[in-house]
Inverse folding.
């Protein structure tokens, strides 16, 4: 045990240390991309686990994506589902909005950042798909509670800056699902050190969409076989088939979200 | 109401590890929102009651149908109430008893199933769903003692066995699996009598829809609280189906064809003798 008073640390230094700490934790993980396409919003994560999700459903039109420490963003995800379900139950389903949830997350992350012994090492996106593309909303929240209202795309996690640069160059509004998925996978596969591109198959990816053409609960995971078809260069499939047509068209695919 | 202010941080209860049950979360965090937690004035309340629900197991699925009437004493409180609800992708609930409470209970049950699915990432098993509903009815026992009973029926598609199954309940929350068919509500005795004669094991979904609607017709024939087909207003029974493709409702114009067939068959043959 050392005796005496702790050294004086200026608030600026304290905040900077905390921010550096959180940023380091976040940059260690694999990236997650959120991209708008003509019929909705797509989420693409490099995640070999089928059980520990980085992308999840929050409510009818709202989804959640995160990078960083799993137990911390899982905690936030569960809180978001509770927030949304309680709000929808006591008011109405239409009263649950991504804006409200993003606000609550921002306040939570902000007060944890300044008040608790360590900040959350997470970065999250809360996205809400609108009835038409101009109404889509994508909010990016960082470890200190800052919120950014993003348009079109977001990249978070390891190598996010390079991926974002690639998105700026190649993403356009009105792309099909097949095109944005191919773009996302090609950017994820780039080696940040400048080496050869990796090969990312469906087994290493977690992909989901908020599809504005679905009914009520718009979130849908894209399972492996369907993802392979959407990504394959010589397959004309550019969009998710109708729910009803799914079981016959894709062998081994359940009609549910899971 | 909910204890989150616009712009405020998420309350600690939201961030605390807990179960995947929405009802348990609400019970801890905002118990006044749960139907069973309310204190009622003494005496018996007069409130609208929903009446007859029937459910029939078919090959590869199950059908649930309900009449549209709610009564309050001798009055018709509502003539186009829906009493059959899809509670998630593979299940239906039909309600008889105090309509206001029953609908609240169904809403809570729907959120409960969706909440579990989102938190856990998998659908609850069919037995799990049936037991969750039993727990909710048990919570309502106090109100049932004051005349505000809710008696639901739960039908769903068991994705493990590929078959439709029916669960019935009593006011104390007892949950019983039924075979072939089951009916609840004031007209249930007549509906059951009808189904005994019309049901055959392994019938297809269309045939099951026809016998379920006919059972409601027979219930309405002898029970004043059960609404018969209202041809003038074109109000038909609510008919839900669950099979491997999920839960859905039969569109009104298809139900109308079934009902009109039954009416034609009963003309000059009121008991429907075959």
């Amino acid at each position: 045990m050392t005796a005496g008073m702790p050294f004086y640390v200026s608030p600026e230094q304290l905040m900077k240390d905390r921010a550096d700490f959180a940023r380091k934790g976040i940059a260690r993980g694999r990236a997650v991309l959120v991209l708008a396409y003509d019929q909705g919003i797509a989420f693409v994560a490099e995640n070999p686990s089928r059980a520990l999700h980085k992308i999840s459903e929050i409510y009818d039109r709202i989804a959640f994506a995160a990078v960083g420490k799993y137990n911390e963003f899982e905690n936030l995800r569960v809180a978001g589902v509770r927030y949304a379900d309680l709000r929808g139950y006591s008011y109405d389903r239409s009263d649950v909005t991504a804006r409200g949830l993003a606000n609550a997350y921002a306040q939570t992350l902000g007060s944890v950042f300044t008040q608790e012994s360590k900040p959350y090492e997470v970065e999250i996106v809360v996205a809400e798909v609108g009835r038409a593309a101009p109404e889509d909303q994508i909010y990016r929240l960082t470890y200190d509670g800052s919120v950014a209202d993003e348009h079109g795309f977001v990249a978070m996690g390891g190598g996010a800056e390079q991926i974002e640069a690639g998105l700026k160059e190649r993403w356009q509004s009105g792309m099909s699902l097949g095109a944005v998925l191919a773009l996302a996978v090609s950017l994820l596969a780039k080696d940040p050190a400048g080496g050869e591109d990796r090969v990312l198959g469906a087994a290493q990816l977690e992909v989901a969409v908020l599809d504005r053409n679905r009914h009520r609960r718009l979130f849908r995971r894209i399972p492996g076989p369907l993802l392979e078809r959407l990504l394959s260069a010589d397959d004309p499939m550019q969009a998710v088939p109708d729910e009803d047509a799914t079981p016959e068209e894709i062998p081994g695919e359940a009609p549910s979200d899971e | 109401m909910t204890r989150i202010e616009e712009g405020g941080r998420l309350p600690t209860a939201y961030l605390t590890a807990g179960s995947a049950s929405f009802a348990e979360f609400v019970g801890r965090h905002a118990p006044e929102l749960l139907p069973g937690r309310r204190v009622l004035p003494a005496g018996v309340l007069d409130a609208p009651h929903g009446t007859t629900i029937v459910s029939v197991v078919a090959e590869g699925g199950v059908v649930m149908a309900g009449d549209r009437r709610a009564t309050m004493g001798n009055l018709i409180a509502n003539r186009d109430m829906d009493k059959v609800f899809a509670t998630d992708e593979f299940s239906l609930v039909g309600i008889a008893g105090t309509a206001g409470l029953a609908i609240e209970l169904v809403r809570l049950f729907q959120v409960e199933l969706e909440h579990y699915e989102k938190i856990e990432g998998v659908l609850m098993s069919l037995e799990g769903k049936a037991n969750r509903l039993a727990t909710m009815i048990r919570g309502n026992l106090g109100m049932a003692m004051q005349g505000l009973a809710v008696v639901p029926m739960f039908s769903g598609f068991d994705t493990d066995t590929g078959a439709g199954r029916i669960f019935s309940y009593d006011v104390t929350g007892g949950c019983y699996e039924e075979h072939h068919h089951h009916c609840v509500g004031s007209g249930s005795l007549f509906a059951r009598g009808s189904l005994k004669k019309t049901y055959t094991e392994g019938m297809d979904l269309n045939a099951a829809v026809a016998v379920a609607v006919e059972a409601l017709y027979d219930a309405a024939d002898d029970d004043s609280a059960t609404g018969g087909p209202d041809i003038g207003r074109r109000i038909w029974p609510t008919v839900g189906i669950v099979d491997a493709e999920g839960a859905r409702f039969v569109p009104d114009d298809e139900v109308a064809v079934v009902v009109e067939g039954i009416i034609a068959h009963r003309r000059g043959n009121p008991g429907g003798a075959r």
